[in-house]
Amino acid sequence: MTTALIVLAVVVGVFFLFGIVVIGLYNGLVRLRNETKNAWAQIDVQLKRRHDLVPNLVETVKGYAAHERATLENVTKARAQAMGAGTVEERIAAESALSGALGRLMLVVEQYPDLKANRNFLALQEELTSTENKVGFARQFYNDSVMHFNTQLETFPSNFVAAMFSFRPAAHFELADEAAREAPKVKF
After folding, report:
1. Which of 40, 101, 161, 181 could bond 75 through an S-S bridge, CB–CB 3.0 to 4.6 Å?
2. 76-107: string of b/e by CB count within 10 Å (b at 16+)?
């Protein structure tokens, strides 16, 4: 009888310890998933700011560079797609396209010395530059959070808990357009 009680106590103890480990791993995965969501929300804030600046920048450039209509339309179209994207993956692709369109717009601006000297344009350009820097930092923080979360999903023993509770890897924010990876060339 005492042997049976000892075996039962050991089995209950093992299940209890197993439960504590599973709960700890699960809570850790939830924390990392929430950190990743928060990091994406920080990107979202900066992207909203960027989306608000783009129409003002386009309107300012329109007054100086009316014949650059295709470039301006591409920026406007890319902004609309970025604002309408739903999933994280769609947003990443749309924001990459917007970054490329803004880069091409800035190259067009180089051709208009009067525009480059315009105070409104300079202020908008400074705001956009500041916003782009903030977006870059937010992307870096997001990608760091994704890396920690995805690493936890793949490591032992949390990979078993992740599979049990259907945790899925998060997507990194990467530039899809190879041209966007290259630094723009400025000629004087």
Report:
1. 101
2. eebbebbeebeebeebbbbbbbbbbbbbbbbe
**Do residues 71 and 57 lie in contact, with contact meaning Cβ atoms separated by under 8 Å?**
no
From the list 185, 49, 184, 62, the residue with the least C-alpha distance to 118 is 62
pTM over 0.70: no
SS3 149: helix
Dihedral angle of Cα 122, 128, 133, 136, to the nearest 10 degrees = -150
Below-50 pLDDT ranges, the chain: 179-188
Write the pLDDT tens digit of every residue in 70-113: 777 888 888 888 888 888 888 888 888 888 888 888 887 777 77
Domains of the chain in start order, with CATH, are 27-181 (1.20.1440.20)
